[in-house]
């Protein structure tokens, strides 16, 4: 009876916590899963069209690239001395229908030629439709156009079309940037999925409880009992590893703090001239990359050594061997969490807006930690049989370091490799982390799904391999 | 009463790799050449017996007869290649004292670490902590890192942790003499206390008089098989006679 009551209490607690977490998550991701900002590529400013005199007309066809088009940016050049009150008239039409008209006085042209036209009160047809912008002016203004785009490091020719000056087609395209929002369907799926997961988890919990009452053997219950019995050992090992790590050093825990900062400065010093210009907030970009990758390399290395290094223990005392690699990954995780503090400080210094998306940091950390547990289990098991694994892994980590966008922008990767490049789980964790810190928004569910598959998949493989081998470990140590 | 240890047709086969491949290259080459040879060595061969709660069982036999392997199988360190070994209680293996110690940590931290390795909870260890420190006679040294300890101090601490947590099954491999003479006396008293208090004990010893003094039953292992299992004096006499004739 006592346990029945305890179970009901525990289950209620689970329901409440799940409800709170799900609601919190909904609040954080709701807007970001509904719409996302979109901006078209910028055509290089290769040349100027002839001056637009009164009566001249420039037509530019463009494909509408947003569900809700908010701004269109053009680049213009003014003849010196022209009156700032003169007007440029841009009218939009699609399939023979006039959509609307915007009048911009020359005074609105910024010194670098940027001319931002807000699209309110003009309703555009659906994304993908071709629209035409027709420009007329009172003289003294000319517009930039070009026939190439910069995609990362590469120059790509645009499919030149759609530009006409007084009805005559011209090679190239106006420098016309569309900014707006894309509508996403994901928010609608949030609650059905959240409730689905809740039902599945509840069913498992209830089934386990049923088995326990009927005293039926059940693997999950056995696992829970083992965790209950050894959770204190896990805690002790994690605390021990963390204590010993800094025991003899003067600055102690401060190193968890200093290390990412110093590493970031070194990288910055080396790479600032190479990549800085093309990355938004290079310091935070670099630091988040270094912190996550360092965690991966540290925890996988420690986890790999955990079984071989504790040979003296394993051959003398019985204990669940899973605990050793897991404790290493978790003690490194303390380090990881501490090093988030300098990251947040750097964000504050560089003026990043602290948005509610930062609440998603635990989500990406949990994904990463589970991934590292999986990798460590595989490596620890392999290491028992072949000590070569440690050397191979060192090389592999260097390769992975270069294959992940840590200190360079993703845009330098040639387009044909990009799908392959995105398959690297580290890429996804880094992308997630940077989207929520620098970007200030939640990534789309696609990223969540990928991170989850990478983490749980690796964990499952790790558990499977470790379980298969663990009874043999003691014979090979 | 009731069975607390049940060893059922246990065989322990060590596959000895004749080529000694420890690198991947060697292994692959040996595998490709089909030169990967193994030699089977049965450390235990079809051993079956059971132990009742509270029994004190001595295990004797010549070197290499499988005594230590048997203890490791019962402790759960080795998984038998055939058969099963089931224990119905918490096992405290004293195979090598202090094998879970960390030399960087203090005596106090090691008490908790070692207790945790044996699967005890934090509350339980807290409740036993004072008793353990007192028994070990380490005094204020308990806060010093273990690397500063003498070997005697280390052994005293290890013995205290292993025996003061009231294990249900105590597995002892030749380690009854710990520390100086006074502490030795104290520790053997402690062992006697445990035994009379209902702890099931499995002990391996070459000291036949010790076995006679402490055990109620003896198992004689030879070449991985049970040669004799029964009353302590009967088995010990037979064993001694066997040793003299060979």
Description of the structure:
- The complex is a heterodimer of chains A (477) and B (246).
- Chain A is α+β, with helices and mostly antiparallel strands and 477 residues long.
- Chain A has two domains: 37-183, Jelly Rolls (Sandwich), CATH 2.60.120; 217-476, no CATH class.
- Helices cover 53% and strands 17% of the residues of chain A.
- Chain A contains 13 helices and 15 strands.
- Chain A has helices spanning 2-29, 186-213, 219-245, 254-275, 282-309, 311-314, 323-338, 340-349, 361-385, 389-403, 418-422, 425-437, 445-476, and strands spanning 35-39, 47-48, 58-63, 68-78, 87-94, 97-105, 114-118, 130-137, 141-146, 148-151, 154-157, 163-165, 168-169, 173-174, 176-183.
- In chain A, the strands form three sheets. In chain A, strands 1, 2, 4, 7, 9, 14 and 15 form a seven-stranded antiparallel β-sheet that branches. A six-stranded antiparallel β-sheet of chain A has the order 6-5-8-3-12-13, with no helix packed on it.
- With 246 residues, chain B is of the alpha/beta class.
- Chain B has one domain (3-245): P-loop containing nucleotide triphosphate hydrolases (Rossmann fold), CATH 3.40.50.
- Chain B contains eight helices and nine strands.
- In chain B, strands 5-6-7-3-8-9 form a six-stranded mixed β-sheet, with helices on both faces. Chain B has a three-stranded antiparallel β-sheet with strand order 2-1-4.
- In chain B, helix 6 links the parallel strand 6 and strand 7.
- The longest helix of chain B has 16 residues, at 181-196.
- The two termini of chain B are 39 Å apart.
- The mean pLDDT of chain B is 84.
- Chain A binds chain B through residues 229-230, 232-233, 235-237, 240, 243-244, 247, 312-319, 386-389, 471, 474-475, and chain B through 14-15, 22-25, 27, 75-79, 91, 93, 95-96, 99-100, 102, 104-105, 109, 112-113, 116-122.
